[in-house]
Every structure is written in structure tokens, then in C-alpha cells.
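Re: folding output
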Amino acid sequence: MKENIRKIYISRPVSEVFAFTWDSSKLPLWFDAIAEEIPSETSLKLGTTLKNRGYNSEQWNEYKITEFTPNEVTTLSQVGGPYHVRYIYKPYQDGTEFTYHEWVDDGELENQVSQKVLEKLKNVLESNLAKEDVV
């Protein structure tokens, strides 16, 4: 198994970080590689599918929520593929410890998420604009 684990501390409550990271309309604000994401339903739950595509790409990737505990952990597994990503949320002092853990069952882990992606998430969430828009 090839994996990549990134962690960052965000000065916002777990519930706000969770809500922001799972709002498909906000994904392009912090995850530069994604241009658009469409969930199969508005209330995310175990089994919900999400389709996304990058900029300059007509190809859609599809993922299914295979683990879902709101404000704690959510795992997406690529439909028909080896890729998985887990978001882990832990209270930390006056904010959240956010972990982005991606892995493949076999083969190489291509286009690994960099720490810059998490830094952008932190910056967006800690900005005054995001604080008003999150909840």
C-alpha cells in the first residue's frame, strides 16, 4: 500500500471544518485541482457518491463514501479503482487537527496532495469571509 498523510491545525471548531470540507460547492476554494464536484444527494451519508473533475478535463472521477462519522472521520473510495482518501477531524486546543490520508491498494500513488492544499484550506477557513460563510 502506498500512502500520503498530511496534517494541519485550523483555528476553527471541528463542526465548521467538517461542514466546509464536505460542501461540494466550496471544494474548488481550497482544492486547486478540482474544478467541480457533484454529490448524488444533498445530505451526505454512508453510500453517497461524489463525482468530480479537474480543470481542463472532461473526465469525471467517481467516489463512494465508505466510512462516515460526522465531525470525526469520512472515507471516500474510488469507484472501480484503487484510490482512497480519509479526512480525520480531532479537536485540538481552540481548533481542529485535520488529517488528509490518501492511499492506493496497489500500484503507485500519483498526484499526491501537497501540504500547500491543506495550508490553503486553513487560510480560507480562518479568513473573515469564510467564518461568515461556513455555517
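--- second protein (sequence, then structure) ---
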Amino acid sequence: MTVENTQVQMRKGILEFCILEIIARGEVYASDMLDELTAARMIVVEGTLYPLLTRLKNAGLLDYTWKESTSGPPRKYYTLTEVGQEFLHQLRLTWEEVSDSIRIIRQKPHLNGTATPPHQ
């Protein structure tokens, strides 16, 4: 077990949440999502993002529209559906609960130095 593996798993666990938060602000192009995630130090590649967007779309959380581009082929812009907005609301509540739990655990004082008895 390495710290890097655990860090990757933690990031994967919140990736959907981050993507939904980005899309919740308005229509967004996948490339712009990648840029924002990278800027936020959430290392994501196209091979991860596009299947996830497809899965979220198939689950009814996202919709998209094609828009003409002045610099190439039409682009697919994503938006949240009503179901996606409610889903994100529930994720936000869960995030607050998890954040509070972690804060409580991390703020608990250290033990007074006594050793834990060996396992019998």
C-alpha cells in the first residue's frame, strides 16, 4: 500500500462531485472541465473524463447540446438536468457531513501517551 494509491482513490471518489459542481455553474465544454480540474490539482485525463460524462448522461444527470465552433467542429456543451441538480444537492449535503466528521476526528486531542495493550 502506498500513499499515492490512497491519494488517487480519494481523488477518484470525489471526481463526479467536482465535475457536477463545474457543470452546475452553466454550460461547459469538456476541454474546459479538464482545464479547471487540472488547475485545481485534480489530475484527470480525457480517457477518464469522457466515459464518466457518458455515464452521468446515461444516468439522467446531464444533458448536452451541440454548438458550432469558430475554431473547428461543433462542440458538445454539458448542463445539469433537474435530476442532476437534485443529485448534486444530495452530494453537497453528504460532503458537508463527511467534512464535519473528518474535522471532528482530526480535532480530537491525542491520547495521553499510554500504550495500547497488545492484541490477545
